[in-house]
Amino acid sequence: MAPLSNINILLSIFKRDITLAIRRSSDTFGAIFFFVLVVSLFPLALGSETKLLQQIAPGIIWVCALLAVMLSLSRLFNDDFQDGVLEQLALSMCPLEMITFAKVIAHWCYTGLILLLISPILALQFNLPAHSIQVLFIALLLGTPSLSFIGSIGAALTVGLKSSGALISLLILPLLIPVLILGTLAVDAATTGMHYSVYLYLMIAFAVLSSFFAPIACASALRIVLD
Amino acid sequence: MQTKTAMTSQPSKSIHWFTFAAPSKFYFLAKKLIPFFWLFTVLLGITGLILGLLFAPTDAVQGDSYRIIFIHVPAAWMSMILYLAMAFWGAIGMIFNARLAYRISNSIAITGAIMTFIALWTGALWGKPTWGTWWVWDARLTSELILLFLYIGYLSLYNAIDDERKAAKAASLLAIIGVVNVPIIYFSVKWWNTLHQGASITVTKTSMDSSMLLAMLIMTFAFWSYTFATVFTRVNYKTLDEESHTDWVQKELSNIRVLK
Amino acid sequence: MIWSSFSDFVDMNGYGIYVWGSFLVTFLLFYVEQRSLKLFRKQIISSDRS
Q1: In this structure, is residue C17 part of a structural domain?
Q2: Is residue C14 part of a domain?
């Protein structure tokens, strides 16, 4: 039996969350399908003129990515809260901050990562040039972790509440506006041939900062709610 | 809740910072101050409005629509200051585990949200005659809109949680996170604004006549005074509500009922 | 006083709607805020509140 170190605890939490996400795949993929469906609705609603689609593509893909992640967040802590697992985790010797970090990484794996991987296909619907699709991919790669990290704070604050999905969105979307702006500016810049790397660097900075501070805030929120 | 003053046995001239951390002490202090705040609100408000609406000259560029600034600017300032204050008191509450600090933070929220809405509404009504449209995605206006969303988020979270203490703590945490984010949000909105054509607004720098400036300053103080009166009142009512099991509140409530 | 008549004052040289629309909504909101505080106070004082 492996020694009960923090690393092992974190790895097992990570594995558990991934396994649970796979088991209730209909919920997990619900958010993904939402993403695909809504993104595809826009060309239908707005017409297929190439120039227009290229202009609106970054905004639409980013907004839908945000919404899809918001949808999936309500399950992050609620299920564990219902079975009492969350309280046990809070009592364990492993710091709650690290536990939330592990859970959020897992969350990113079953939401942001998948959105990221499908995004090139969706971008083709909008006739985005190949270079822009590359930049979109990188931007989503750098941005979606921030979505999960900051979103986890919202999930922690609303543990145990009914209809937390809408409430989480209300709380967290204003805080994610910088990611939205940076992400869309990056792709816009790539499409028009301007410099885009500065936006990507800022997104890296945002991701690093949120990965550090969000678990702290998240753990605080969990302690308040579990009290 | 023990006050720190109980710990000093010899008379001292130092300020007892934590005296008013006790809800009962704060309640009676606030109760005494509220009428003065109302007095100042009315006096300053009337003075400011008379000066601004009746005596300040018509602006050469904007005509008389500029008079909206006597409400717009104070409201905008208050909306931002109150968010900071809300986060500040929430942080104090978390650091010292002081429920009065949480209570002050919660009491500020609604007033702050109203100020933000007023700033946006008057901004739109000022924008229409000045720039031709009701809404412009100007960096400051957009940030103000986001601020309104932050307030609404705070109030939604506070009202969603049933347990009063948990609600107060959770909402305060949200406010602290929001406050940290506000500079980042403002910076990114400003950037977004400069890069998207059609959204740049040149606010014509009208040289303000001294009477306009004075009226605006007086109105700002009037808004401050109104805020203090309202927030202190709300804190006191919340104290009566949440500490109703204590003796002093029961006594106070019976006093109030007698006076009714 | 820069206005020669009351109707001039209300009209604000054509900008009346905007200026008064702003002022009225502001005072309305403040009034509503104070009413709700009064209501809160009534609820607290009434002995039925647990």
Answers
A1: yes
A2: yes
Which residue range is the domain that position C14 belongs to?
6-45
Joined tokens for residue B90:
């929430």
Residue B63, strand partner residues? B59
CA distance C31 to chain B (A): 11
Predicted-complex ipTM score: 0.89
**For chain B, what is the radius of gyration of the CA atoms?**
21
pTM of this structure: 0.87
Q: Write out the two tokens for A61.
A: 């893909």
Q: Do C29 and B118 touch (CB under 8 A)?
A: yes
Model confidence over B152-207: pLDDT tens digits? 999 999 999 988 889 999 999 999 999 988 888 888 888 888 776 544 445 555 56
Contact A171 B192 (CB under 8 A): no
Domain extent at residue A95 = 10-226
Asked, for residue C50, whether it belongs to a domain, the answer is no
Ordered mean pLDDT values, 10 residues apiece, chain C (50 residues): 81 84 94 95 78
In a domain, A176, yes or no: yes
Q: Between the CA of residue A90 and those of A96, A224, B24, B167, B202, what are the distances in Å?
A: 6, 11, 35, 20, 53
Domain annotation covers residue A150? yes
Domain-embedded: residue A3: no
